[in-house]
Amino acid sequence: MPSFWLRGDNNTSIVKIYPGLKGTSFSIDNSTEIKITLKKSNGPFSPEFEPVVRSVDREGLYYFLNLSIPESVPVDLFDLQVVIETDNGTFSDTQPNAVKIIDEIKSSFSIVHLTDFHVDDIRGFLANPGETLEYNVIQKAINTINLINPELVIITGDFVFGMSYFREYFHLYRLLQDFDVPIFMSIGNHDAINHVWWLGGENIDGMEIFQDLFAPLNFSFRYGDLLYVSLNSMDWNEYERLGLAILNFNWQGQLGEEQLDWFEQQLTGTNAGLIMIGYHHPPESFKGEGVERAMTLAQEYDVDAVFNGHTHYDKVRTDDGVLYITTGSLMFDFLSNIYPVFRLIEIDSGEITSYTFDNDEASVPVYKDSLTAGFQAQLNIPALSCTYLPSNSGISKTVTATLTNHLLENYEGISLEFVMPVPEPGKTYEVTGGEVAETYFDADYQIWYVKAAVHPVLETAVTIQEITEMK
């Protein structure tokens, strides 16, 4: 569960610790030795930063560490490591992609909605083995989203197939770490099967694995004027979720009364100007209870949009003033004439201003020629991509990033990171074709964060090269 920390604001940088979560026991106070590390793990250069613990507060079973963020930390996404030295021993934990450092809460920004990855789903292999093997389709989608650089990504379930959770969740966990933007995850039906297989005398429950690895079953967060609430539409008990392999009797949606009471609490009294909800099943895909009350609450509390997946098809409709947006799948599927997509949502001053690609419902295709190809197996070229020449490895003093846009739309805020060697004395770097957003320098490397605009069906070159520094 990522957090947004405002650089220079000591009120937003907080780490919450529950010592008893994994059966451990220790106490913390202001004299406890605590080391916090932010580390950038995506890319060839991995700078580390150490926020300072200003104070430790306790509320019940939880401790809250209040931090100061050094001004030297760039606007970027970081892993978070916590090491605590106590009389009972040393305790540590590392969470990948856990903290996004920002300069401001934006009023205009974009969000990406993804859904239905289906890691290791046989249907994807049969439709396009070349792109399904080695998870090329997921990797290309992540690369594209990193270029577009939304403020955050919401993902509404069916991350895995459900045949072998140990293998599938392992692959998923590795793949998700390639995101360079914060992701917020809701569970889907394929993720939540309670397998009746007994391996080593232990029942394998996908819902428990999901919670251990990724996120609570329901949660909410604020980003400026936005309130986002994630719900668990697989709200069946452990017996109702029993299954063998991917076979499960209760795979359609349900929202229980306890969860809906919590949902209403999140909506009651909020001053958010924009309210968005995410859960896996669209209303028409519910078998159990709860969808009518959920829709009524959305209407009563002026929810702006509800995001769903599950059906693998794009669909947009309005019900009692609430926008219901279903986004197509990120998988190939030999049973259906679909292609991998994601949805880009534009927000301006508390309002959703755009949520379609080329008509009233369509999402953004991951691949070139998705709209015209006769067979899914023909798709292998990403619709938006970037190549660096020479490689962006911090060795060359001249690097060109070539952006190729096969989509039919402009993208203004493409995000690039150039990792450069320290220039010779009296020299610096110059960027052409893009605008420098920020730089980070240390003794060995420099990171140049660059923004660029790309236009439809064109290549755009952004070059950084060493020049003599002007005096």
Write a structural description:
The protein is mostly beta strands. It has three domains: 3-101, Sandwich (Immunoglobulin-like); 108-378, Metallo-dependent phosphatases (Purple Acid Phosphatase, chain A, domain 2, 4-Layer Sandwich), CATH 3.60.21; 384-468, Sandwich (Immunoglobulin-like). The chain is built from seven helices and 31 strands. The strands form seven sheets. Strands 9, 10, 11, 22, 23 and 24 form a six-stranded mixed β-sheet that branches. A six-stranded mixed β-sheet has the order 14-15-18-19-21-20, with helices on one face. The radius of gyration is 23 Å and the shape is globular. The model has no long low-confidence stretch (mean pLDDT 93).
Compute the separation of the termini in Å: 46 Å
CATH homologous superfamily descriptor of the largest domain: Metallo-dependent phosphatases
Our Rg estimate from Cα atoms comes to 23 Å
Assigned CATH architecture of the largest domain: 4-Layer Sandwich
Overall domain count: 3
Kindly name the structural category: mainly beta
- State the oligomer: single chain
CATH topology of the largest domain: Purple Acid Phosphatase, chain A, domain 2
Name some characteristics of this structure:
Immunoglobulin-like, 31 strands, mainly beta, 6-stranded mixed sheet, single chain, 471 residues, 14% helix, Purple Acid Phosphatase, chain A, domain 2, globular, 7 helices
